């Protein structure tokens, strides 16, 4: 048996699924593939429906094909049912001799003696069974079994998607008799939650530019048309810039200004005019001049240069759009699902200000700040590596379910209806406001504080309306990321002041610049690091660049003059680092006092717990720091050595890994023993299945994105501390991930 080829093929299956027409095709291909690679006479897949506890034969190679959809077994019935019931592989040399053997007439299975049934499961959820048979005295060997168990677990991923499509959990649906749902479905990964249903707009700039170059425009356009297009483009860009400034005052600076500058660049315009006068069609002249301009930057590795190329491409496409069409083309993405390859933060801000409905990012991972930004902009975003999406004709309706990471290309009415009803369940901000209680209390009377994570100032409105009790994490890096240079102290002050004022005396936690890693400052991070997540980033960066750090600290202290101010340092790895950062704050307070500038002279100083190196020093840190905020996103990444932005290792990124749970417990307990405030501000704080655990280990402050405030409150309202402590106790006792998953999945959480 060709194991390597088999595993490779199965991996390929997931690609097939992305482009697959129907689930049937997928399952049939899977059984054919496995049968061929394992030299088995029969390979069948049964899928399980937990509602009626029945298994249905869904695809077979080697048995009577008519049996698919008709053969049904109860859980525990026959060797196949037993394998799933007991969640264990069953291998028999001669199946008919086993007392549990169940004879199914008419499928001709009895011709083959050797039998192998492998449960297909995700954690503790039963999904189906993979069954193989061989005749002629050929048994399955232990190494066959090992390889096929891997296949079964890969199939589990694929079938999970299939089950979603089939709506198998809907009890009224008889799967065997259900009409096959013909649709184009792509399974992606959620970067920012939400739904959208809108026509597609593919923005593949490289393609657009080369199309412009090679199109035959005849003699249709003149120099005057070009000048007219320039002024219309300038007007549109100015309007967009104004609009973006109104909505996103902290992030907007210069988003469209770079385009305007290129548009007004005499050399650029001169090159185009020269070409037009030499007889080249104006759209081609624009594309040629843009390409020539870009040449200088293309070879560079620097993000800044690549961003420049991006700006020139953008502008050229917009300019030609205005040249060839007199219609209002400025909002190309309004009310569209934009499908694109690459994305800079500024692109996302542009799409948001143009009114795009959702974004699908094809190929490449997504940096964490892009997804955080998308969340703040309420822009549903899904990442996929199905490049075929770039060939979807513009205007094709796309349903983006960015809750599940699912994409439906031209979905049928049934799918649409299902999503409309789901969307109706989503509450508007007003409805959430009505339901939100001013105080969060467990049923047995323990008070829990719910704070907000703020990324952009636009997050303040929902956070305040939903009565957050303060800001537990303000990610100051966003104004840095979207600019073309370090924002000055004065610029930062203006932004921070808005935040402090909006919170009116409630605690406001400023996290100092967390740059580096995947939060690239394009104008600074010129040197490509082999391993940026562990490179010159975060507090390391700030301590190495004390002028920049001091400017930020001064802006924070000044803006927080009247506030309940907390300053927090990211990625602290040693007590020395914490003390050095604290000294910068204390020195800045001295200087501001000497200069007579109003400021906060007594902020509380704390740190993020994001690195495993903190765990064993936690008591020592607790003596120095006023508070801890646990950043579970990075904590899990570094604890487990799993890149949080790498889709291919996402299955290893486990918040409930026993080491993570025990380390969190250790940090929280020690903090409490030393009277050091502790909160959680990473994603675990809003993930419903983990909130009871966090309460159980003693966490009483959670900081979450505004979108999760209500849901988190509802989870807390339904969790007594007694139950939470029992749960935490049970979880901490286990050393196996599977046992922990079993305990977690037995929780009953509010809908
Ligand atoms: C974290 O790491 O959990 C965190 C809150 O910080 P960020 O997501 O900004 O890295
Ligand atoms: Mg972090």
What's the layout of helices and strands?
Blueprint: H1 3-19, H2 23-38, E1 42-49, E2 54-61, E3 72-74, H3 78-86, E4 90-92, E5 114-122, E6 125-134, H4 142-166, E7 184-187, E8 189-192, E9 195-203, H5 205-214, H6 223-247, H7 257-263, H8 266-277, H9 282-298, H10 303-324, E10 337-340, H11 345-354, E11 358-362, H12 368-376, E12 381-384, E13 397-401, E14 406-409, H13 413-425, H14 429-435, E15 440-441, E16 447-454, H15 460-465, E17 471-475, H16 477-481, H17 489-503, E18 507-511, H18 538-544, H19 546-559, E19 564-569, H20 575-595, E20 604-609, H21 618-624, E21 627-630, H22 632-640, H23 658-673, E22 677-680, H24 691-696, E23 701-705, H25 709-717, H26 721-733, H27 737-745
Parallel strand pairs: 9-10, 10-11, 11-12, 16-17, 16-23, 17-18, 18-19, 19-20, 20-21, 21-22
Antiparallel strand pairs: 1-2, 1-6, 2-3, 4-5, 5-6, 7-14, 8-12, 9-13, 13-14, 15-16
Helix pairs in contact: 1-2, 1-4, 2-4, 5-9, 5-10, 6-7, 6-10, 6-11, 7-10, 8-9, 9-10, 17-19, 19-20, 26-27
Bound molecules: phosphoenolpyruvate and magnesium ion.
Question: What does it look like?
Answer:
- With about 750 residues, the protein is of the alpha/beta class.
- It folds into three domains: about 5-175, 2-Layer Sandwich (Beta-Lactamase); about 185-425, Glucose Oxidase, domain 1 (3-Layer(bba) Sandwich), CATH 3.50.30.10; about 430-745, Phosphoenolpyruvate-binding domains (TIM Barrel), CATH 3.20.20.60.
- The chain contains 27 helices and 23 strands.
- Strands 15, 16, 17, 18, 19, 20, 21, 22 and 23 form a nine-stranded mixed beta sheet that branches. Strands 7-14-13-9-10-11-12-8 form an eight-stranded mixed beta sheet.
- Strand 13 (about 395-400) and strand 14 form a beta hairpin.
- Helix 6 packs antiparallel against helix 7 (about 255-265), helix 6 (about 225-245) crosses helix 11 (about 345-355) and helix 26 packs antiparallel against helix 27 (about 735-745).
- It is globular and about 90 Å long.
- It starts with a helix and ends in a 6-residue tail after the last helix.
- Residues about 165-185 have low confidence and may be disordered.
- The structure holds phosphoenolpyruvate and magnesium ion.
- Phosphoenolpyruvate (PEP) binds near residues 631 and 682.
